[in-house]
Amino acid sequence: MKKLKATIIGAGSTYTPELVEGFTARKDVLPFTEFVLMDIDEKRLEIVGGLAKRQMEAAGFEGNVILTMDLDRAIEGASFVFGQVRVGQMAARIKDEKIPLKYGCLGQETTGVGGFMKALRTVPVIIDIAARMKRLAASDAWLINFSNPSGIIAQAILNETNTKMVGLCNGAINMLKEIENTIGTKEFDYEYVGLNHLSFITSVIKRGEAENLVAALSGKAGAKMKNVPEIEYDSALLRAIPYIPSSYLSYFYTREQQITKCRKAGQSRGEECLDLEAKLIEQYKDPDLKEKPVELEKRGGSLYSTAAVSVAEAIFNDKQEVHVLAAKNNGAVPFMEKDDVVEIKCRVGMDGVTPLPVTVYNDYVVGLMQAVKAYERLTVKAAINGDRDAALAALMVHPLIGDYDKAAPMLNEMLEVNREYLPRFFA
Length: 427
Known about the structure:
3-stranded antiparallel β-sheet
């Protein structure tokens, strides 16, 4: 059996023990002989990497676990590269969240202006990782990315490079788990359509039956994410859009409520995460700790190791399984362009990722996806080229912004506070 090397970039993240848990659970079907944990923060890498090593040892892993700050060393010979980078760390996220509120806009780190700024910082970094992989990684290497905003990064990598890449999120797997719990069985077929953090389950049919249960489930089975403030939907809204929405759709359905919640909150979500991470890091320092602590669930990454490692397993063992992924459309969603990256069901095996046709949707889904995809395309153009005109156009077309008197000064301020991470915009 072929031996494998796994690389985790951004391994100083407090999420890393969750990912390691996924590897250890599948050590018999994914025969990794080397794990390389890479980060630019030496202190975090040492602490989180120390726990990762203890987890591996406790699980009986006999290969090498290497900690490094050298990106090329980490990528060299890798079979799978897992990306979970946060350019600017939590300090940049907190600015992303707070500055837009001054202009009456959401700074949520993937859906709002915060996601836009995070994309500008992150897209060039992931493109650089992809370029290094072509030079240094195994010839059949895959990049599995869950750095946010995952969908925009996938839009960039899959259209601007020829790297084998999967865009991943834990949202779909949590939504499907909630449906399973609600209807009392995992034996059901479903349709899933959207973009990352802008997605809907439009059909739920128990195996052997014909009735689509989705309208009855739309107010009962939407998975709640730790990082999204809960909003209760009116029955009229659920009738108008009779699908099961990603929890992030609440930012579009009830924008003003979400802005009010953010303004009234004592802390931004980034500040909450900063406090939580400090407590987690203290726990990770304990030399007797050999497993993921339960407090990590509060961080919001539920089941993402399951999503990430199961995709790697499907590729390596040619399982031809169905997973919800960010992938090039290639005609699967009839109202989107061929090169648009969409988040839909895909068949996954050694030959790669094949999107499966989508048939159940309505005009609301069509209009929202097309508008937000226009924003994503412009954001990629801005990130790669340092194009201020494309950046402003992206904010103007985004359904949550679209106001020049807000967008122009907000963009100028946010570019300025991110100057050290955005040299293309200040050439």
